[in-house]
Amino acid sequence: NKKYTIAVLPGDGIGTEVTPVAVEALRLAGSLEGIDFEFKEMLVGGAAYEATGVPFPEETLKASLESDAVYLGAVGITKKMPSSDHLPKHLRPEVGLMRIRRALGVYANLRPITVFPQLLEASSLKRSVTEEVDFMIIRELAGGLYYGKPRGFGINEKGEETGFCTEIYSSSEVDRVGRIAFDMAMERRGKVCSVDKATVLESSRLWRKRVTIMSEEYPEVDLSHMLVDTSAMELIRYPKQFDVLLTTNVFGDILSDVAAMITGGIGMLPSACIGGPGPQLFEPVHGSAPDIEGEDVANPLAAVLTAVMLLRYGLKEEAVAKRIENAIFDTLNEGFRTRDIPTPGAKIVGCKKMGEEILKSL
Amino acid sequence: NKKYTIAVLPGDGIGTEVTPVAVEALRLAGSLEGIDFEFKEMLVGGAAYEATGVPFPEETLKASLESDAVYLGAVGITKKMPSSDHLPKHLRPEVGLMRIRRALGVYANLRPITVFPQLLEASSLKRSVTEEVDFMIIRELAGGLYYGKPRGFGINEKGEETGFCTEIYSSSEVDRVGRIAFDMAMERRGKVCSVDKATVLESSRLWRKRVTIMSEEYPEVDLSHMLVDTSAMELIRYPKQFDVLLTTNVFGDILSDVAAMITGGIGMLPSACIGGPGPQLFEPVHGSAPDIEGEDVANPLAAVLTAVMLLRYGLKEEAVAKRIENAIFDTLNEGFRTRDIPTPGAKIVGCKKMGEEILKSL
Ligand SMILES: CC(C)[C@H](C(=O)O)[C@@H](O)C(=O)O
Ligand SMILES: CC(C)[C@H](C(=O)O)[C@@H](O)C(=O)O
């Protein structure tokens, strides 16, 4: 049997509820294809802070770097720690996530937006708008406004407090994530839409320039540019126009959550953080969701779809990926739904039960 | 008769088509209430650049400062100038808009999101989601990422090109726009939702701190904080939860376009830029829209609703404002629609004809 080691970081809130579902799906689907997984469960985020005093302990880093892929559940506030405002920045749960992304050197966050036909009625958007939507958001993940320096707090010439951050991109930062977008478009419908705010931001002007230069290497790919405000509307007005949507860290953070609503919500959205030299990172898009934590109502499908991405993009084990994908499909066909994706006539079940049904389908 | 001087800046693209409709509505409704308007038409944006070599000429500044209110149509690319990428930043059309906002000292952009019952079917969102939505987005307009310094282009230690901008807020910048939000909430349903990314951005942490401090002066107002990515989803999932949504310049730019989709699109959205010491600025949210420019199909309702805001917030002439509002309502009741807001059984008309129908209703 082939063997893989997966670092599993359940993290906070519903992360600890959905992760076991993904792990069991991986274990079972793997065994059916002659693959053994060794899962190393490690701490991250608020859970790590509580146990060790820091949100990203050394042991978590070490186990992650030694793994074949890293699976992360969620980090963020929880019922027990409903705010982290009182903590200095370097101890807050989110820092655990930002640090592991940095440590693995991943720089492209892939968020596929696809609509399950069974869930067409679960979206706020009309069926005519969401039907057949299928695109990939590629968010730059290692630079821009969320990491740029200088950043911090200061006092201005009037003696007032200030808070400041820097949005900065360099050519190579744009190029490496741009290449992932163009390569992906070549395997899809051949279109890249690059989203920026080049009319106002210098960082966006560099972004647009580099993406345009790169497009010359890909004559088969049709490149367009869209302003971020326009794209926020177009995602809702006519999402079928998109194939690969490439954008910056901060814009991608916002736009991928807009796009989530096409699919019936973040309970359905997986993501992959790729591009680093070593193991890649896989995480559902939803956060810790303290409002529903501990009630066994979280939707584990994002987590299981994240396991699919881990197999597909991390380990290149397409056969196992397909198995799990089919099991999700079957479970939805049988009418099982968590309460965030209600559709007429559905059987509403909890997180655990949904997981059991997926294992049954497998 | 009372007299007001209005600086009218039609600008670019469909700005030149919708502005006359708003001007005629103001003229007629004013005359019915014993008010005379003097309209001073001035150049801005690409139109100004073509005629004078700069996007914001001195005369436009002068006429604007001497007026009782400034009405702006749209600035941006057009069929004639389909890209401004070749121009240095200070000559691009958008700079005309950013300069006039600065020159007037306006710092709060008010974007009311209300749904006309006649247009419920025109949205991508389901009727059950959009019905009875009524909130106000208050976008900080004079600071943050779109104005912060340092900004520009550079070379990093690896010899690569970089582009960078600064997101910076000071206490007083947050306080002045915050006050507008809290005051507005007092006249509405008493809720402020402040949107930031305090988990990652120092500028957002200062923002959150100042808004929280200010809330102590308004014990009747219920303040909540929401992360920008979450808010992008919540605007689509359950927009009825919002009353006053207060946010930064860049987040407001994106979120107000998300919110636009609730109402049936930006063809319906007015905005007011207020807070300055002198005349205030009023502009529809849509841009120059080169794709439909010159075809007499633009929706003039955003422009006419902007005239309503000019009367209501700029001149405090509520009676005239109400007259125009009622005329819009009647015109929609008679079934007239532009093609961007089709509803079953509607009479689809062009921009001019829509304007004539509004004048008739007046
Ligand atoms: C928790 C936060 C740092 C993170 C981000 O914005 O990157 C999250 O919102 C996400 O989208 O994965
Ligand atoms: C043209 C541009 C500078 C402007 C902005 O972002 O402020 C526009 O997008 C708007 O929303 O009014």
Automatic annotation (TrEMBL), chains A, B:
GO terms for MF: 3-isopropylmalate dehydrogenase activity; magnesium ion binding; NAD binding
Catalytic activity: (2R,3S)-3-isopropylmalate + NAD(+) = 4-methyl-2-oxopentanoate + CO2 + NADH
GO biological process: L-leucine biosynthetic process
Keywords from the UniProt entry: Amino-acid biosynthesis, Branched-chain amino acid biosynthesis, Leucine biosynthesis, Magnesium, Manganese, Metal-binding, NAD, Oxidoreductase
Domain Isopropylmalate dehydrogenase-like: 5-358
InterPro entries linked: IsoCit/isopropylmalate_DH_CS, IsoPropMal-DH-like_dom, Isopropylmalate_DH
This enzyme's EC code(s): 1.1.1.85
Cofactor note text: Binds 1 Mg(2+) or Mn(2+) ion per subunit.
Pathway(s): Amino-acid biosynthesis; L-leucine biosynthesis; L-leucine from 3-methyl-2-oxobutanoate: step 3/4
Enzyme class: oxidoreductase
Cofactor(s) in the UniProt record: Mg(2+); Mn(2+)
Its job: Catalyzes the oxidation of 3-carboxy-2-hydroxy-4-methylpentanoate (3-isopropylmalate) to 3-carboxy-4-methyl-2-oxopentanoate. The product decarboxylates to 4-methyl-2 oxopentanoate.
NCBIfam families: leuB
Family in the record: Belongs to the isocitrate and isopropylmalate dehydrogenases family.
Subunit field text: Homodimer.
Protein name in the entry: 3-isopropylmalate dehydrogenase
Protein species of origin: Brassica carinata
